[in-house]
Amino acid sequence: MPTKVTVNSGLITINDGSSFLVTASDGSIDENLPQGFFVWDTRLISYYEISLNRYRLSLLASSNITHHNALYQFTNPQLPTINDSLPPGSLLVTVRRDIVEGMHEDIDITNYHNEAVEFQLMLAVRSDFADIFDVKSQQILTRGDIETRWKSGVLTTEYRNGSFLRGIVIEPACGNCEPRYANGRLMFDVVIAPGKKWHTCINFTALADGKIFEPQNTCAVPHSTKAAKVRDEFLTNATELRSSNTEIAEYYQQAIADMGALRIEVDDNGHKFWMPAAGIPWFVAVFGRDSIIASLQAIAVYHEFARGTLLKLAQLQATELDDWHDAQPGK
Question: What pTM value is reported for the model?
Answer without folding.
Answer: 0.76
